[in-house]
């Protein structure tokens, strides 16, 4: 199977429509089985899409309406026009930049049974610290699996911030009792407290795909200061694909980095080829 994650920074980049098409082109070439996207935005004030136009959409309970400029909706439409269809889900976490409903998305070749979990201590949509993780049951290569598109907070301490969110999500995912793929922007660099927590307090039987991969490309997913990392001066890996521990990961590839696809975001993406 082939899977990919990307923090899209959608509509906040220069030439955003061009970069949307770059993402479409890469998906058409690679034909990923599952894709997890973060910072998937839509303007608060734009028109709501009629439900009949949401082809392949798999809503969550109390679904936030999809607007015509929803980045995932625009992506799905362009893929469909090129003959590539995906089932998809999206839900918002919070209001971003005072004008966007910002959330996470999952695209899959198989139908999705999706739920949205507010994992943060804060619950208010107006608070940028409010964090939602989108979780979906689906099937890949005849294997039932749970996929989570994650955008966590930064490390604070062992009881708040990332640590709180990780413990909350882990507890919910354990109830599914099937293998998990955790994909997305963890906002915690390799080797630091949050990353160690995932590896040391891990009841989900998952492991960093980079560590498991037989072949791997460059590691860092951010290389400079970006939103949320304004004081950063070094290359860091903060975007991950965690897979079941006994998976066979053949390749780990950094994508949308100027080498494996054009740069489309302030994050690079990650793609993995693997067998469960």
Automatic annotation (TrEMBL):
Q: Name one GO molecular function term.
A: endonuclease activity
InterPro entries from the UniProt entry: Endo/exonu/phosph_ase_sf, Endo/exonuclease/phosphatase, TDP2-like
Ranges for domain Endonuclease/exonuclease/phosphatase:
19-267
Highest taxon above the source species: Bacteria
Signal peptide region: none
Which keywords does this Swiss-Prot/TrEMBL entry list?
Answer: Endonuclease, Hydrolase, Nuclease
Membrane spanning residue stretches: none
Protein name in UniProt: Phosphatase
Recorded source organism is Enterococcus mundtii
């Amino acid at each position: 199977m082939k899977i990919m994650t990307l923090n899209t920074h959608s509509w906040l980049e220069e030439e955003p429509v061009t970069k949307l098409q770059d993402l479409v082109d890469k998906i058409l070439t690679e034909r990923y089985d599952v894709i997890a996207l973060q910072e998937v935005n839509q303007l608060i004030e734009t028109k709501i899409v009629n439900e009949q136009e949401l082809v392949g959409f798999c809503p969550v309970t109390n679904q936030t309406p999809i607007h015509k400029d929803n980045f995932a909706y625009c992506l799905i439409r362009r893929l469909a026009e090129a003959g590539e269809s995906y089932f998809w889900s999206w839900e918002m976490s919070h209001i971003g930049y005072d004008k966007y409903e910002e959330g996470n998305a999952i695209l899959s070749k198989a139908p999705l049974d999706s739920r949205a979990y507010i994992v943060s201590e804060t619950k208010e949509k107006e608070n940028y610290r409010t964090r939602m993780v989108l979780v979906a049951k689906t099937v890949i290569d005849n294997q039932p699996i749970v996929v989570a598109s994650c955008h966590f907070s930064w490390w604070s301490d062992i009881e708040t911030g990332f640590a709180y969110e990780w413990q909350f999500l882990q507890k919910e995912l354990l109830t599914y009792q099937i293998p998990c793929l955790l994909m997305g922007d963890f906002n915690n660099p390799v080797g630091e407290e949050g990353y160690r927590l995932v590896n040391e307090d891990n009841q989900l039987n998952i492991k960093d795909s980079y560590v498991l991969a037989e072949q791997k490309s460059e590691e860092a997913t951010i290389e400079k200061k970006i939103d949320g990392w304004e004081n950063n001066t070094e290359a860091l890996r903060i975007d991950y694909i965690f897979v079941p521990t006994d998976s066979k990961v053949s390749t780990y590839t950094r994508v949308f980095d100027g080498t494996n696809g054009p740069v489309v975001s302030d994050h690079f993406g990650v793609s993995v080829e693997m067998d469960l």
